[in-house]
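Q: I'm building a small set of examples for a reading group on sequence design. Run inverse folding on the following structure and report the sequence directly after it, with nothing in between.
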């Protein structure tokens, strides 16, 4: 639920409140008979989560001397109540052999921020500061003495952005900021709150250019450094720290409107991602993409007819630290069409994987063993991507 109001001629207020109810249950077995050669390694992950909170923002237009200034400030709150967070070893989905993790999580985040924009002719300088407070609470149901463990943490996140508007069709920007990498509440309390919100440092340098009335081109060179790379291992119920990492790359975007109803867009990313503290050749970040491409062609309301064809591509990428195991890339195309018979009734069709490409959606390298194998094997495990799939849609608005 959202609310907006003009408090005065130069002061605007925005607020929203939200609530989410979320239930999760998943059975899986990635390692087959690696740990339990008799019953297998099937696991159950379960949780019941309630999320609620609010956001507020005050936006004031003013002057600092002769400088046009916009000040945005606000407060926010979010509380996650997660009951019965379970990771268990199961058999045939109906028998729990043993619990690997079981408990209740309560995580609270309160924050405040202030952002300013100073307009100096063609320049805009935009500094900002955000303060976050976290409280992590965990009731571990597997310990002998059932008690609530809690930790708190406060962190500051500054940023500083510069914009230069050459003219109405060309803008250059330099953005920089410091953020943080969050963590699992269960890990936070286990580590007594130490090293739980490692910093992330990022910067972007780019431009937004409109060379022709119906064309927009955006580019950006960027860099990101993480004090700590975290990998969540859901089937083990742990978060693995893997040291410092850095990423840098180039983003390219292109938009073109052929006619009043025909649009084209595409975006490409080139990325170099490596661990900082590992030797060369063993410093790959598993599953970090090197090249991605997305885009498509869209028809928007041509006498009631709308359609779109979209493609997405991801290159082969390392699945482990020395790139000896590779996660295969893919190129997948989707299609949708819709016809509005009138203001109330429309008919449509949606096709996923138009060309029936064989592709793997989730991929990761892990060690596993079949029941009749003596030694385990490390290889790619994957979830098959959606094959050719078509569905019809009938919509009625009232």
């Amino acid at each position: 639920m959202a609310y907006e109001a003009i408090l005065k001629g130069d002061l605007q207020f925005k607020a929203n409140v939200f609530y989410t109810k979320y239930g999760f249950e998943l059975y899986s077995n990635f390692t087959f008979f690696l740990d339990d050669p008799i019953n297998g390694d099937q696991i159950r992950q379960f949780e019941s989560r309630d999320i609620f909170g609010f956001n507020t923002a005050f936006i004031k237009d003013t002057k600092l001397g002769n400088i046009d200034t916009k000040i945005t400030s606000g407060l926010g709150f979010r509380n996650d109540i997660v009951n019965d967070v379970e990771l268990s070893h199961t058999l045939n989905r109906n028998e729990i052999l043993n619990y690997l993790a079981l408990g209740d999580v309560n995580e609270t985040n309160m924050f405040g921020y202030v952002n300013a924009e100073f307009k100096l002719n063609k320049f805009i300088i935009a500094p900002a500061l955000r303060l976050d407070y976290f409280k992590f609470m965990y009731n571990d149901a597997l310990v002998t003495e059932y008690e609530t463990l809690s930790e708190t943490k406060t962190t500051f996140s500054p940023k500083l952005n510069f914009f230069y508007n050459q003219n109405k069709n060309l803008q250059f920007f330099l953005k920089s900021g410091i953020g943080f990498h969050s963590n699992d509440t269960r890990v936070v309390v286990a580590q007594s709150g130490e090293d739980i919100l490692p910093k992330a440092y990022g910067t972007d340098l780019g431009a937004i250019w409109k060379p022709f009335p119906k064309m927009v081109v955006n580019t950006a060179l960027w860099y990101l450094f993480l004090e700590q790379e975290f990998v969540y291992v859901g089937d083990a119920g742990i978060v693995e720290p893997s040291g410092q990492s850095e990423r840098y790359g180039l983003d390219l975007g292109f938009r073109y409107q052929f006619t009043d109803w025909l649009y084209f867009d595409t975006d490409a990313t080139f990325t170099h991602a490596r661990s900082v503290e590992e030797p060369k050749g063993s410093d790959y970040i598993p599953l970090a993409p090197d090249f991605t491409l997305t885009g498509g062609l869209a028809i928007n309301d041509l006498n009631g007819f709308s359609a779109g064809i979209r493609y997405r591509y991801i290159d082969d990428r390392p699945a482990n630290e020395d790139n000896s195991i590779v996660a295969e890339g893919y190129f997948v195309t989707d299609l949708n069409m819709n016809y509005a018979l009138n203001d109330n009734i429309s008919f449509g069709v949606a096709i996923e994987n138009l060309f029936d490409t064989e592709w793997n959606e989730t991929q990761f390298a892990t060690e596993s063993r079949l029941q009749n194998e003596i030694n385990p094997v490390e290889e790619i495990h994957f979830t098959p991507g959606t094959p050719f799939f078509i569905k019809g849609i009938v919509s009625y608005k009232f």
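The domain at 2-396 is CATH 2.40.170.20 (Maltoporin; Chain A).
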